[in-house]
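Hi all, long-time lurker, first post. I run a small reading group and we've been trying to get comfortable going from sequence to structure in the token notation. Rather than ask abstract questions, I figured I'd post a concrete chain and ask someone more experienced to write out its structure so we can walk through it together at our next meeting. Sequence below, copied exactly:
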Amino acid sequence: PEFAKLAENYKKAVSAGLDKLETDITIYDVRSQADHEQDHSLIVAEQQEYENGNYPQTNAAAVIDLDHKLIAELQSNPEFLKNNNKFLKNNLDDIFWSLVLLNDSKELRDATAKFILPPKLVFSPHNGQGFRATTISKSVIGRWLPEVTVFPTVFAGLDNQLNANTYVNTFIHELGHSAVAGSGDKKTMDRKMGDDFGAVLDEGRVQSLTYKTIRYLNRKNSTLKPVFEEFEGSDQYLVIAEIVESIARTSSNPDFIVEWQLGAIDYKTMLENIRGSIRNLGLSNEVYKKIMDFRLGDKKTDASISLLNQLLVELRLGGVNLSDDFVRSILKRNVRH
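-- Answer (accepted) --
Happy to help. Here is the structure in token form:
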């Protein structure tokens, strides 16, 4: 009964959040003083980066222009938001239970029921770091409130045109982050995800949940497909996460990766569990060493492809032959039309 009530509260909160998101975008004025101030702050921040010897990958003026363009298109085409939000609202039951059951962790279910509040949705007109959306957690009277902030580019595909498939995929991805947004023991949340490998594992797991949920929702909307090559490195992150989770399932506690995402165990403990699972499989310590040595650098896709290839080589050397169908079955999820 407690979990059924949680599911109902989740649906109500996300549905209300989508309505508010629609309203906030509809009434947003790009000529307002508030927007001018945000524009100015982005340009100043970019100038400071250059003065400090850093060279941003994004151009502030181009970001501002694209955001304004997309806001104008959303306002002139209100059916885009209305129709896509209607689809999301009509399927919140399936989305909620998919995210919960795919995580398949009693720790997660207990934490969700006791400590994690339904996500709050926020619209922000600009993001200077290139994110389409972000999810952070805030402590609210002993519970965790995930706050999902969406930016105008969440509604656009690679061609910077409005794209329903990108929007639904990205929105569900952020809901996936919000599902593991808090601590399962009411202690101070440890959301320090660790190093670059931690970032890849976290994003890869959530992207995997997203792909599986989207494939299920395809039954209700045949035009809805998992995205491919829309987010830098994310396709490789997913395969890496699937491989690491396969290794983790040999542990006496196969849920330790989810527990780390929740903040119930810290990053160091999670890595020790991975190391133990590698030993359980009789694999070389080189597998663990590749993980520990991993760094993303500036070219995230190239770095993640390199790690993926290194893991595959070490697994094959250890007698674990992942068939081509294993990797292909993962990558075939990523089909964008």
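A couple of things your group might point at:
Strands lie at 120-123, 133-140, 143-150.
The longest helix spans residues 2-27.
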